Amino acid sequence: MPKFSIITATAVIAALATSGIALAATAPVVSKERTVSSTKAPVAIGGIKQGARLPSKDRLVFRAVTLTKGEKATVTMTAPSGKTLRALARSGRISVTVLSPKKYSSKRSVKVRVTTAAKATGKVTGRVYALAR
């Protein structure tokens, strides 16, 4: 009998561990903040057209976000040291809402909420961009 209860307890623990991993796989995935290495703007942002050359002192930082319909992710965008934020943009089938501060221009960081676009289905990947000057 003791061996049976040990096997049963092990099976229960394994089942719980597996279900926890399955739940973690459905959570939104947000990358670490990175700087765009290109000299051309990948999106229209802050008066700079898509494909136009970025001014030499401007920096464009971004985070990649992957989520499914109905999920939300809160993301903090931070300007590089010595710079302040000027504008935000997005790419992909996501929508971005500024949480705080509402007037983020000339601030060092901003917190935004990322959700899927209204007509998006399945898994959606997009990027949130911040222009820093």
Structure, described:
This protein has 133 residues and is an alpha+beta fold. It has one domain. 18% of the residues lie in helices and 41% in strands. The protein has 1 helix and 8 strands. The strands form 2 sheets. Strands 1, 2, 3, 5 and 8 form a 5-stranded antiparallel β-sheet that branches. Strand 6 (94-100) and strand 7 (109-116) form a beta hairpin. The longest helix is centred in the first third of the chain and has 24 residues, at 2-25. The model has no long low-confidence stretch (mean pLDDT 86).
The gist of it:
It is built from one helix and eight strands, in the order αββββββββ.
Annotation keywords:
single chain; alpha+beta; 133 residues; 5-stranded antiparallel β-sheet; 3-stranded antiparallel β-sheet; 1 helix
Please describe the biggest sheet, giving its number of strands, its sense, and whether it closes into a barrel. 5 strands, antiparallel
Low-confidence stretches: none
Q: What would the principal axes of the Cα set say about the shape?
A: globular
User: Helix count?
Assistant: 1
Structural class: alpha+beta
Q: What's the structural domain tally?
A: 1
Q: Let me know the average pLDDT.
A: 86
Radius of gyration computed on alpha carbons? 21 Å
For the record, give the distance between the C-alpha atoms at the N and C termini, rounded to a whole number. Answer: 71 Å
Number-wise, the strands total 8
Strand content: 35-45%
* Secondary-structure element string: HEEEEEEEE
Roughly how much helix do the residues carry, as a percent range?
10-25%
